[in-house]
Amino acid sequence: MKLGVYQCRADGTTEERLDGLDRHMAGQGCDLVLCPELFATGYDQTADFDRLAETPDGPFGQKMADLAILHDTALAWGYAERTPHALYNSAALVGPDGALIANHRKRLCSPQSFEVRTFALGDAVTFANLAGVRLAMIICYEVEFPESLRQAADGGAHLVLVPTALGADWGVVAEKMVPTRAFENGVYLAYADQAGTCGGLGFYGGSRIVAPDGAETAVEVGAEGFITTELDHNRVARAQARLPYLTDCRKL
């Protein structure tokens, strides 16, 4: 599987985000591309999410499905999800045919953020199977807890998708914590951030793909960009056999 991660400009409009994604995907031949948290709306603390929220197959979701079909690529992205009873900070995954495969609702709001008053909480790591790869989905702050990645790895995930909107002051998360989470579980981790500013907030722009042995491919910090990596199932098996954290932790 060829995996891509798109780091968008935080201050772009909806159409600019879609155009940027389309442009960066062209000719890449990716099997799966991950976009940031709240990619559909922008991570904008001033936005009216009650108005902007939609279902996974809403207007923005339909445009993402069209791009998936156009590029023959599965797509995962963050959006504000509307349900009959609440709004959620969610991430959708569609296949290359545009059909919905999975939908994850963020389980932990980023502390001291507008999320606390805006979104309800999900209740589990989300799993899916795509082109022979077992993957898990979480969002942003969830990756900062070892338990999240351990749950994903225990569920058989080879790849964990993490759309994020990491704040400008929190580079340590992208540079230190995210590689550690991949390494200590022997899994691939895709981390898609935004770059620049939006609604008075600044973003680090630390998107990266981390391999099971901790090796990284990263977008230039603070810039729009796109990175790709070929996933190797054997690399997961070798990492988990070399350092059997997943089995030995149960002895503690």
User: What overall geometry do the principal axes of the alpha carbons give?
Assistant: globular
Which fold name corresponds to the CATH topology? Nitrilase/N-carbamoyl-D-aminoacid amidohydrolase
Helix content: 25-40%
Report strand %. Answer: 25-35%
CATH architecture: 4-Layer Sandwich
Let me know the average pLDDT.
97
Low-pLDDT parts are: none
**Total count of strands:** 14
- Total number of distinct structural domains: 1
CATH superfamily: Carbon-nitrogen hydrolase
Largest sheet composition? 8 strands, mixed
| H/I helix tally | 8
State the distance separating the first and last CA atoms: 35 Å
Any idea of the CATH class?
Alpha Beta
Structure write-up:
Strand 7 (133-137), helix 5 and strand 8 form a beta-alpha-beta unit. Strands 1, 2, 3, 4, 5, 10, 11 and 14 form an 8-stranded mixed beta sheet that branches. Strands 6-7-8-9-12-13 form a 6-stranded mixed beta sheet, with helices on one face. It has a single domain (2-251), classed as Nitrilase/N-carbamoyl-D-aminoacid amidohydrolase (4-Layer Sandwich), CATH 3.60.110. It is of the alpha/beta class and 252 residues long. The chain has 8 helices and 14 strands. The protein is globular, with a radius of gyration of 17 Å.
